[in-house]
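Late entry, GLP complex.
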Amino acid sequence: MKIIKILDNNEAGKIVSDLILDEVKSNKNVILGLATGSSPITTYENIINKTKDQNIDWSNVITFNLDEYKGLESDHNQSYRYFMNNQLFNHINIKKENTFVPSGLIDSDNEAQKYDELIAQKGGIDLQLLGLGINGHVGFNEPGSDFEGLTSIVNLTKSTIEANSRFFENESDVPTQAISMGLKSIMNAKKIILIATGEAKAEAVKNLIEGPISKDWPCSILLNHNDVTVVIDEQAAKLLK
Ligand code: GLP
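Prediction complete; structure with ligand written out below:
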């Protein structure tokens, strides 16, 4: 596991955008796994600006997002599809038909697993970007999630609903379920970059980096992956030995 210590989320955006753009420049058909949440926003801003400055071509790039709230239509302003269109896809020359976000209207795990089949069909994810939940979730794989899990319908924990309620008008508006790539789907990516900043992430970061590998901290499974880069600030690193 490679650890990059940065000052704040702005610096994370500068560094991670370069890591992602290096992939895009070296392979015009690259398949990226993308994340939502506040952690990657500065990364997407930097990608948009550098893409303009350096005239970077996204026309053959394919992307797969980690997750989507169950029950939200793609045009709902809190859907992750809406987030991705606004934060990134609308500002670069990627083809929308090459951008995949699980549908929030999926009703069965059988249907959800077609997402993994599609990822495999396209050739597998070259680089997966991740944020980190306060409770150690990656994607929406909450504590207790199966390490062998593929894309499925998952229940959100009370703490995740609370944490994500800041984006909704009322906590009761936050969906209680999501469709999320599983831990196995994530581990299948060739490379992984995870961004975690701020004190609230410190305990999850400690379990991510120091282990032990345990279902109590889903992120800890990343210790078994051979190409993970973790980008953290001082506050997120504060519990590390
Ligand atoms: C959400 C998302 C995750 C994200 C995490 C952290 O629940 N499903 O993919 O990584 O929470 O969010 P943030 O970056 O806003 O702290």
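Helices lie at 9-26, 41-54, 80-87, 109-112, 114-122, 158-164, 183-187, 202-210. Will revisit in the morning.
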